Amino acid sequence: MPTLNLSTNVPVDAVVASDILKDATKIVAKIIGKPESYVMILLNGGVPIAFAGTEEPAAFGEVISIGGLDASVNGKLSSALAEILETKLSIDSSRFYIKFYDVQRSFFGFNGSTF
Question: Active-site residue 11, yes or no?
Fold first, then answer.
């Protein structure tokens, strides 16, 4: 159920996208403490984004989870995801925002129902 929705203005080819999806899945699962089989990663490359008045490489992410998020976890996730973006897409960590949502089970749907 943990979901990372990541958008960047950097075009992402299939090989890099696959690497990011694999790495992000492992990191989100490990840091939040949920099985990888529950993790969903969405990666949107080439999205028009202006940050601080420029269109230099930047990204925005949202993490949604039923539990598992707190100040310590959020900080670790932010750091780990920023490292992936810098390594794979040359996005400086100062050009990446991330928003965390800890939602109730009834607000997360799956398999035609809610959790």
Answer: no
Domain of residue 87, residue span: 3-114
Structure confidence by residue, pLDDT tens digits, 11-50? 999 999 999 999 999 999 999 999 999 999 999 999 999 9
Catalytic residue (one of 2, 11, 48, 57): 2
Read off the pTM.
0.94
| Residue among 24, 4, 40 nearest 85 (CA) | 24
Specify the number of domains making up the chain: 1
Q: Strands across the sheet with 59-65, in order?
A: 40-44, 3-8, 59-65, 96-102
The CA-atom distances, in angstroms, between 31 and each of 2, 13, 75 are 11, 27, 10
Contacts of 72 (CB under 8 A, 6+ apart): none
- Identify the three-state secondary structure at position 87: helix
Tokens 């990541």, located at residue: 6
CATH number for 23? 3.30.429.10
Contact of 43 with 17, CB cutoff 8 Å: yes
